[in-house]
Structure prediction request, 204 residues.
Amino acid sequence: MGNHSNVSEYYDLEGEIYEADAANAEYQAPQNFVTEIKPFIKNANMVLDIGIGTGLSSLVLVSEGKQVCGLDLSKKLLIYAKRRKPANLILGDLTKPLPFRNSSFDLVASCATLNYYNDIGKPLQEMQRITKAGGIIAFTTSKTGLRLQTPKRSIRFFSHNSSYLEEHLDEADLILYTDILAHLLEGKQIYYSVYVFKKWNGKN
Ligand SMILES: C[S@@+](CC[C@H](N)C(=O)[O-])C[C@H]1O[C@@H](n2cnc3c(N)ncnc32)[C@H](O)[C@@H]1O
Prediction:
């Protein structure tokens, strides 16, 4: 599937750097992601944030009145998230079956996380399974494939096109595709693609 142990190790070791980037506004993905999906989530109450990290997207979602549950692989980032208290927090792995019943959430969101994996077919199917009929699945992937290589970090980002995503989200319709500025890293601008799908409501 990709990068798994690499990603976990990276975030456990580099949690402080990630937190500092967010504080310096070098990391803009969470705010820009929520701004784009906001028009589609007015009626969403129960939210799952996959790869919650330090809780930055969730903090915005909570301020919008949502009840948020967050799942992440990194114990270190969950400690930061706990300080922000955005959500119920669960240590878990999106590459495994997700520990939730069918149709549990109005919104399943994932910002800046799926891009670490090349094959995301199973995670997408799990995200679809736990979304309620008529609910929203919203996430980012990398706009282009790239290796992020700076003195501070080295990690590979994968891009996924809409036909790949539509193939795996086979009970949902694509309702938004756009790009956002995600990182300002040592002079480089890194863009993510935002995708929003609406799960069929049973009448389609
Ligand atoms: C760039 S951070 C994004 C965090 C948060 N969504 C945000 O935008 O601020 C990526 C997050 O994905 C998490 N992650 C990566 N692979 C994961 C996996 N297999 N299962 C759960 N979380 C994962 C990392 O631990 C990290 O917290």
Notes: Residues 4-199 form a domain with the Rossmann fold fold (CATH 3.40.50.150). Residues 176 and 196 are 5 Å apart (CA to CA). Residues 4, 7, 11, 29-30, 51-53, 56-57, 71-74, 77, 93-95, 111-113, 116 surround S-adenosylmethionine (CB under 6 Å). The chain has six helices and nine strands.
